[in-house]
Amino acid sequence: MILRKALPRRTFLKGMGTAIALPFLDAMTPALASSRTPGKPPVRMGFVYVPNGMDVRNWNLDYEGKLDQLSRILQPLERHKQEILVLGNLTHNNGRALLDGPGDHGRCCASYLTGMRPRKSAVDIKAGISMDQIVANEIGHRTRFASLELGMEDSRQAGDCDSGYSCAYTNNLAWRSETQPLPPVLDPRALFERLFGADAGLTPEAHARRNRFRRSILDFVTEDTRKLQSHLGPTDRRKLEEFLSSIREIERQIERAEKDNASIDPQMEKPYGVPADFGEHFKLMTSMLTVALQADLSRVFTFLVTREGSSRHYREIGIPDGHHPLTHHRNDPALMEKVTQINTYHAAQFAAWLDQLKSVTEGDSTLLDNSVIVYGAGLCDGNRHNHEDLPTLIAGRGGSSINPGRRIEYRKETPMSNLFLAMMDRMGVHAEHFGDSTGRVEGLNLA
After folding, report:
1. Contact, 107 vs 96, CB < 8 A?
2. Any residues with CB less than 8 A from the CB of 386 and at least 6 apart, and which?
3. Residues 174 and 319 in one domain
């Protein structure tokens, strides 16, 4: 590693089979000052998708303007009220039935980021290039990964997908082309090694030797770390130590998950390093995503919080019933209450992740300030399977291009694609049309 007075933004800590990109440091500011946006961190864009719609009675707000009392499901986000926008009346018309085909769950997921109606065929699949990939195609060359696709699903509960072509729609948010979905990474170990391991250059023997000793990935970059620290000021040394500590903690979480899974019946096919507890799995995946965004490994991501139509149970909050069957509650108050509890539990995990993003400083701002993250569902009410007024919120300020802390209610039937066009603008990618768009939504920044 060659050090200069101004560290280049793409400085890595390197070791055997390992390359760890660094977060933004003060020592990089002179180098950043020569770029197109002097000293300004990049904007990151992402989508966190929850399945099976919402209990909209406990999601929707009955007012517009400045956020005041939040609904029950949104209550975990109370401490982030000034960092979110809650949007109403956004619709995916192409998720609606037209001689059916892949079903409501398949259509709502496949159309969510593509704005297109998926093919109604049991032979092949076809949706459309997703909005995240349009952005990734334009800016992805600036980072190691053009985009990251993450997901969560316990493989022991993944057998309730009704057909192969429907599964292709319900299991994928990102589409590189109209016929090529980008499957999300589900296993934390696989994600960790993708982000921090350069195993492709290792021989099978070297790879086996590395796994046998199972040293921390940070052990391989000790010498580079020591050299770098000797050239950093106190603030940057602290930032670096915190960043590397977060990587070490991720390793510990993965190791704990693997030990827990070792107690499962050895005859049962089991995931590798996937925590059985939903909250632990969510935290592990988002912790790695935070490190990836902080180190500018990617600026575009999708996160499928279990696939659409998932029947996952949530015993950790006292709900052994499958999520999907519960949403077909037929207005039974007891079942509706369980759906609300699951929706609220998901929101609580998201709020905890926002805590993490908000704690990462980037100059005078935070990682959350420099992000625009959509959280929501591709169905409105899971019981009615309707595709209008989709539960949608935005977290972050998009690098000062979004003014949060408000509830915005658009005209009924406003295409979700209109929001996506406005988001593309904030990523420096300009398009005249996307999906079924009719224009751009207004009011995100009050300009």
Report:
1. yes
2. 379, 380
3. yes
- Global pTM reads 0.82
Domain identity same for 165 and 203? no
pLDDT tens readout for residues 135-174:
999 999 999 899 999 999 754 444 455 555 567 888 889 9
Q: Are residues 239 and 377 in the same domain?
A: no
* Domain range for 249: 1-37+197-273
CB of 375 closer than 8 Å to CB of 48: yes
DSSP-derived pairing of the beta strands 300-304 and 361-362: unpaired
As a whole-number percent, the residues of the chain with pLDDT over 70 amount to 77
Contact in structure between 341 and 316 (CB atoms under 8 Å): no
Examine the domain organization and report whether 242 and 96 are in the same domain: no
**Per-residue confidence band for 122, with pLDDT thresholds at 50, 70 and 90:** low
Which tops the pLDDT comparison, 205 or 424?
A: 424
At 264, the pLDDT band (50, 70, 90 cuts) reads very low
Burial track 36-67 (b if 16+ CB lie within 10 A, e otherwise):
eeebbbbbbbbbbbbbbbbbbebbbbeeeeeb
Last residue of a domain, one of 273, 301, 317: 273
